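look at this stuff:

>
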Amino acid sequence: MNRTEALRILGLDEDATLDDIKTAYKETAQILHPDRFATNKKLQDRATEQFKNLQEAYECLTSGKGSRSKAGRAASTTRAYTPASEMEARLAGIAAARTQLVSQRDVVYDERRNGLVMAGIGAVVAILFRKPGPLLILATAGVTAVVWGIVQAVGAQRTIGTLNEHIDELNKEERRLAEELDDM
């Protein structure tokens, strides 16, 4: 992983300072931590993968592997720390976290749609083959598909609700920080 890719993962610009990197990492780590998705194995697995990428990016930027050239380092050491730069870094971290959550939500929307389609197909099969006889097995399979599809859709809807809550929290925090930044 190179510096540019690591900065992109953290939602930072090329001129990010070490403090900017640390702030963006802490905020994004809180949002993407796999424990926040303990109720959904698929989301937890995805969050784990993204969290590993986040850690790799942070390690790259703080270990010296992703450091700037000597001229870039000299410029960063003379750059003064300001509360505004910290807020900008936090805003960038929030934007990166929101992007991740929206991607996760899109995956769950697909899961919900697939569950609803499965329930619909299962209902059609169950209705078509409901007469006694050898095809009754297909009706049973159709009923099973209906139940599975409904369970899938309901579970996905709950996860979508949770992700929307997290996205709303990020939006509120972003508005609050933007207002503070404007007041400076």
The longest helix spans residues 136-183.
